[in-house]
Amino acid sequence: MIDTKQKILDTAENLFGAKGYDATSLRHIITEAGVNLAAIHYHFGSKEELLDQLIVRRAGPVNEKRIALLDQIEAEAGAAPLPLEKVLEALLVPMSEAADRNPEFVRLMGRMHAEGMLPSVLNTHFQQVIARFVAAMRKALPELPEHELLWRIHFMTGAMAHTMCGPPDYTRVSAEPSPFRSRIARLIAFLSGGFRAPLPQQDHIEVSQ
Q1: Within this chain, do residues 31 and 99 fall inside the same structural domain, yes or no?
Q2: DSSP label of 176
């Protein structure tokens, strides 16, 4: 039998994903979950804390697996540059596996993205993981200037967000019912080429000066 806290989390995940965070009130959640307002305050205290715990429930195990995979890659590489594709796999594959298991959470993150809440969510729940992987990308691409590396990571985060939770685009391929794992395989191939691309002409000039 699902306990009250779990029931509230499941209900909030569905409603936030379907209606959006701002459009979903605590009254909506307690009505749908069949609990009282006191249960929300007892387990979470506020709507904001409810969202935080909901994200921790799904993202926590993903981040733990990411770091474990990255630790293994760094141990195997020793002093050598890290293999770029392996670093990208460590970042993206755990996320895609979780997405295939929990499509409701993907829909929720899509709402966070659409409502402009994703930067705050990333800052609160993913900052340590982001720092580790930025450092890993430096080790994978030691020849890439720092400023250019950060730009390419910026482009990567946009591609990740669009691949996982963006709306169907004009090509219609993102609306195909393919597993997220196959989407990520394509994304890794795309990103690895992008990270290894030649520097923009302006940066060639700046570096040579």
Answers
A1: no
A2: S
Q: What is the CA radius of gyration of the chain?
A: 20
Structural tokens at position 157: 């985060």
pLDDT band for position 152 (50/70/90)? Answer: very high
Q: Is residue 106 part of a domain?
A: yes
pLDDT digits over 74-119, tens only?
999 999 999 999 999 999 999 999 988 988 888 888 888 888 898 8
Q: Which domain holds residue 116?
A: 59-208
CB 58 within 8 A of CB 105: yes
Q: How many domains does the chain have?
A: 2
Decide: residue 33, CB within 10 A, 0-12 exposed, 13-18 middle, 19+ buried.
buried
Domain assignment of residue 153, yes or no? yes
In whole angstroms, give the CA distance from residue 85 to residue 184: 12
Do 71 and 30 belong to one domain? no
Q: Token match 């796999």: residue?
A: 89
